[in-house]
Specification:
The structure is a homodimer.
Chain A lengths: L3 E2 H6 L8 E6 L2 E11 L10 E7 L1 E6 L3 E5 L2 E5 L5 E16 L17 E2 L2
Parallel strand pairs in A: 2-9
Antiparallel strand pairs in A: 2-3, 3-8, 4-7, 4-8, 5-6, 5-8
Chain lengths: ~120, ~120
């Protein structure tokens, strides 16, 4: 395993909402993603989803509340809970999930991305 | 689950090498820790260990090389690999491991800490 600098990785990413894998942790994957605008409502029935804000601001919309996150914030969406991230300014996130989790969960659609492996 | 700001959490931590749990992710734990000086050589036979440098600099000594990490770097120590972190200046780290992993792995000793749960 080589170290990876997440800022350096993200400096080379243009595409929004397209996670890139930067490391494996047992059967989990560590990913980074740039986000701007609104994603799609979805849930992951099989797993919690870890968010860490590297820079910028992102709001995790839940059905009963909004969770406003800024740089340095951690938030875990529990399994089965519907959520929809949105970002008024560009944000950079670290995501950690079990291998094979799809970004759009149960929703599918145009924002579903085959994840690029940068490890 | 509530969001947690890792800088705010660490501002209230004085103790070195004493991980604090800030979130659960399935059967994994997300922890933060302040480090300075040298830890103890150890390994975790049952799991990889995830390091993310929130601030400062830390070197993960392996038996065959040193991995020098700075702010924004990710590094995963593979399971079974002996390692010994050291920091010449204070560093703040995020660690992620399966629940119940002990900070000193197989080594034990005075630096072994019962982890405080801040979730």
């Amino acid at each position: 395993m080589q170290k990876r600098n997440l800022a350096d990785v993200l400096d080379r990413v243009d595409e929004l909402w397209a996670p890139k894998k930067v490391a494996d942790l047992n059967d989990y994957e560590v990913k980074v993603v740039k986000v701007l605008g609104e994603f799609v409502w979805h849930r992951h029935d099989e797993t919690d989803e870890f968010f860490y804000v590297l820079s910028g601001e992102v709001t995790i919309q839940l059905r009963d509340r909004d969770v406003a996150l800024t740089t340095g914030d951690v938030f875990v969406v529990p399994r089965g809970v519907e959520h929809c991230p949105k970002a008024a300014i560009e944000a950079r996130l670290m995501l950690i999930e079990p291998r094979g989790v799809v970004n759009t969960g149960d929703a599918g659609g145009d924002l579903t991305h085959a994840m690029e492996d940068l490890t």
